[in-house]
Design goal:
The protein has helices at residues 2-12, 17-23, 28-37, 42-51; strands spanning 58-61, 67-71, 74-77. With 78 residues, the protein is α+β, with helices and mostly antiparallel strands.
């Protein structure tokens, strides 16, 4: 799911996997593997977002309808 979003933004930014890998200080092979497996830590997603000139947000939606937004390690209930 995240890999698809990253690839979409890369296309919009005209950025190659090699260029993104360089921007986040990893090898193109490592980034390609992560994209293929769709396996990223939150810290990596934040780093990728920064390299793509984006903001990464992570949210939890409670099954009861309440929206819980997670920012920098703490929760705010909206």
């Amino acid at each position: 799911m995240m890999a698809e979003k990253i690839k979409f933004v890369m296309i919009r930014r005209n950025m190659t996997t090699t260029a993104l890998a360089q921007a986040i200080n990893t090898s193109p092979a490592n980034l390609s593997n992560k994209l293929r497996r769709d396996d990223f830590r939150e810290s990596e997603l934040r780093e990728i977002a920064k390299a793509l000139n984006c903001t990464f947000e992570s949210n939890f939606i409670d099954n009861g309808g309440d929206r819980c937004a997670v920012f920098e390690g703490f929760m705010d209930f909206l």
